Structure formats: C-alpha cells, structure tokens
C-alpha cells in the first residue's frame, strides 16, 4: 500500500486483507479471521487469531486451558502429567489473565482418544521460573530413566504429527513447551523433550531484563505511547530491511504536526514492528535490533558472535537459531548438584554453543565436550568462547552428525567413561511457521536430521548400557 494513499478513514477491509497477505498469511486465513473477529479488529489481534486457528486446526497439539474447579474431575489428564494443587493451578490462571492472550480465542478441546500433544497456555513448561517446585508432576517411562540424561529441543509450533512422532522416538516422553518470554524480553516458543529431574530447578542470576524498555533502555526516549509492546517477538534469522524502515518513516512523517498518527497508520506500523522486531531509535525511526542486543536477549556474553571474520548476516542466522540460554539453563540447573566435579557432554547441532554457555553459566565444569556442528563459522565461535573462558576440559569438534559412528562413540566412552548429557536441537527449517515454502514436516531435508539425534542417543545408550 503506497503511503500517500493513507486516508483518515479507518482501515478498509481490503487494506487489512492486503496487510495480512503482505505479512505472509493466505487470503483465506485473513478473510476468516476478519469475518470471525469483526470489522474493527486490529491487525495484531487478527494475527493472534490466525495463529490460534492454525494451532487448533493444523498442528498436532491441543491447547490445554486448565479445567475449571467443577469439571476438574472429569478432565482427562495427558498421559504423564498430573496437575498439582489448586494453589499452583491458580498460578497458571493468574498468569493467563495477565498474558498477551495469544490463544484467547482457543476453547477447551475434546481431543478424542487419539494421542495428542498438549501445549499449555501460558506456555510456561513444567515449572514457573519464579518457583523451584513443578506445576506438574511427571512420571518418566521406565526406558527413559536410564542415564545418560538427554535433552532435545525444537520449535513448539510444528505441522501435524511432528511432536507426537518425536515423542514416540524419544521414549514417549511428554514435551515440555516453554516460551522464553517468561525468562527474558523476547518470545521463543520451543518444545523440549528430556529425562532430567524437574524438582529444584533454579534460574541463572542475574535474571535478565523482562521488558524491551529494561533491556534496551535508550529506546524509551523514542518509544511512541501508541506502541504498547513491552516484549519482542521471536528473534529470527532475518532482520527487517532498511527499505521497510524508510517506508515507516515516510508514513509517520506525514502526520508530524499531529499528536499521533491516525489509527490505520499505527496499525500498519505496529504490524511491521511486531513482524520484524523493530525498535524505536529516533523520531519516526525504527530499526531492527542489533546482533549485540540479540546476544544479550538470548543470554550470551557480549560479542560472543562478533569478530574473527563473522559477518553480521552470519550473526543473525546463528542467533536466530540458538537456544535462549536462560531458559535452557533453568532446565539444566538440576545437574549442578549431581556433577560438582564436572560433566561429559555430547553436544549435537551445537550452533554457537547455547548448551555449553548455559552449563558454564550455571557453574558446572565442562570436562569433555564433544561438539558436533556443521557450520565452520559456528565452530569457530564455540572454539573462541572455549578459549576466552579458559575452560580446563577438552573440546572435541566433529563437523557432521553423520560422522558420529559407533566406533567413535565407543572410543569416547572408553576414554572418559561415558557421557552424562546428550543435548541438542536439530534444524527446524522444515518445521517453523516462518517457512511457508518448504514447511514439509519432520521428513524434510533439514528437519529429518532429528533421526540422527535419535540414532546417536540410541548408540550411546547401547554402548554405555
Ligand atoms: N542449539 C544451537 C543451535 C541449533 S540450530 C545453539 O544454541 O546455537 C541447528 C544447528 O545444526 C545449526 O547450527 C546447523 O548449522 C547445524 N547442523 C545442520 N546440519 C548439521 C549436520 N549435518 N551436522 C551437524 N550440525 C548440523
């Protein structure tokens, strides 16, 4: 929509449709949302609606709103989870009322007898990060209890059947779905399947800022009152373009003499800001967050991905794919007591070392880390960090997961007595909602590397067993 065509009338139906289609939704999704939500609904709410509808229809998940007190008895619990006391349930409810309402429109579902995966709303996982006790009690299947510990990660919102299949391969363990917005100032909805204990978790300190305004305080000066965002959306591998920032500037400048731009301009600007995680850096000026800011939001040390020939594009890609360190560290914190003398780790798809950084920040000594990562840039980043942090252990690097053979693993197991933790998140390229071209599911070219994770876990278990 050319900016000079803005009128003071509220945004017409076609314009909203145009915006939504421009944001990557299909015309059908956009029209359904507009029909269901009514003519005055803002773009942000329409995108929430589409997201929720997508979740309910397309994905292999049921959104679990907690049962009301009266129907609590008839509520059928997911297999391994049993909800605890009313007090803790209230915690969920309070949080839900205060939440951004992503799934406001979702209703309680009859999930039938078919095995379904449940995503909690709010997406807070098994524990509230402000408490050390779990909100749910889980019973691990027997086969999953044997060591080593393992921890698998991928995007929460996947196409049909993906999480149930991953879970089937990983000993039928129920995934723990967590949005990192409960840990830091940006969202990151991820599922984690692991056999770690879930009692006595503790968060990393200092706790990271939970709002954009605290995390990037200098943006406050330029933040318009009509932009109510306090947290960022998920950090992705691509950042918004300079052209877009310029279009936004021009759209706003037309209304410079007025207290604020008209609602339809606000709606347009906010939709783009949300989509591209733009922040206010000057009068009428938005910009994508910078790699340094991304590092801080994701829990990495400053300049973790900087220098050594790493270009900004690589930094965006690496950080867009990485673990949110505070979130993962919270789950791994239970290992601290168990491994005071250090831990042996098999880190698959290591990326920029989210797992290694999390363990280090928890104060768990890294004895032997076998790190498997195909990108040379990423391997250089992890090696650089290893040296800078004066690690006393050994870092063994392997490029491709397919090179991780029985022989190699047997050799490591006999040389340092086995792995304590196998950790990794396989590529999400064919699973992520951002990928509208080749979102073909777990069998996709990249996402099928999950089976390598499973193969290697199985080998390690056999060798150690
Ligand atoms: N958890 C990581 C990021 C995982 S993203 C972090 O905290 O940074 C998935 C990673 O798998 C990417 O870094 C990608 O380069 C790597 N990868 C893709 N194919 C691979 C292969 N065949 N062998 C090893 N690593 C691979």
From TrEMBL:
Superkingdom of the organism of origin: Eukaryota
Designated name of the protein: Uncharacterized protein
Source species: Pistacia atlantica
Biological classification of the source: Eukaryota, Viridiplantae, Streptophyta, Embryophyta, Tracheophyta
């Amino acid at each position: 929509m050319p900016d000079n065509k803005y009128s003071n009338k509220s945004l017409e139906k076609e314009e909203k449709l145009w915006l939504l289609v421009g944001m990557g939704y299909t015309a059908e999704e956009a029209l359904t949302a507009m029909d269901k939500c009514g003519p005055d609904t803002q773009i942000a709410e329409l995108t929430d609606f589409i997201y929720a509808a997508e979740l309910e229809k397309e994905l292999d998940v049921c959104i679990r709103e907690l049962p009301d007190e009266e129907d609590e008895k008839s509520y059928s619990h997911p297999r391994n989870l049993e909800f605890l006391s009313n007090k803790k349930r209230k915690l969920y409810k309070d949080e839900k009322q205060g939440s951004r309402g992503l799934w406001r429109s979702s209703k309680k579902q009859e999930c039938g007898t078919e095995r379904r995966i449940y995503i909690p709303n709010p997406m807070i996982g098994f524990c509230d990060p402000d408490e050390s006790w779990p909100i749910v009690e889980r019973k691990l299947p027997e086969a999953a209890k044997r060591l080593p510990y393992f921890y698998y990660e991928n995007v929460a919102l996947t196409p049909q059947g993906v999480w149930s299949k991953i879970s089937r391969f990983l000993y039928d363990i129920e995934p723990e779905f967590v949005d990192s917005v409960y840990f830091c100032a940006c969202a990151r909805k991820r599922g984690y399947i692991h056999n770690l204990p879930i009692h006595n978790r503790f968060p990393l300190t200092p706790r990271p800022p939970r709002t954009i305004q605290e995390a990037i305080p200098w943006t406050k000066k330029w933040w318009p009152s009509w932009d109510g965002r306090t947290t960022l959306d998920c950090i992705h591998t691509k950042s918004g373009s300079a052209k877009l920032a310029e279009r936004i500037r021009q759209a706003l400048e037309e209304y410079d003499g007025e207290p604020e731009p008209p609602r339809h301009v606000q709606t347009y600007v906010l939709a783009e800001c949300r989509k591209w995680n733009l922040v206010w850096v000057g009068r009428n000026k938005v910009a994508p967050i910078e790699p340094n800011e991304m590092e801080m939001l994701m829990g990495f040390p400053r300049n973790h991905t900087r220098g050594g020939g790493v270009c900004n594009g690589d930094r965006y890609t690496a950080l867009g794919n990485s673990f949110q360190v505070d979130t993962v560290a919270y789950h791994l914190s239970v290992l601290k007591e168990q491994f005071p003398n250090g831990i042996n780790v098999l880190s698959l798809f290591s990326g920029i070392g989210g797992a290694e950084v999390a363990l280090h920040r928890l104060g768990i000594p890294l004895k032997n880390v076998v790190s498997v990562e195909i990108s040379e840039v990423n391997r250089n980043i992890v090696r650089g960090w290893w040296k800078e942090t004066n690690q006393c252990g050994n870092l063994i690097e392997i490029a491709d997961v397919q090179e991780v053979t029985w022989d190699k693993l047997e050799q490591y197991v006999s040389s340092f007595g086995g792995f304590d933790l196998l950790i990794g998140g396989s590529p999400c390229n064919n699973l992520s909602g951002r990928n509208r071209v080749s979102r073909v599911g777990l069998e996709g070219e990249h996402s099928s590397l999950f089976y390598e994770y499973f193969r290697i876990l199985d080998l390690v278990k056999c060798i150690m067993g």
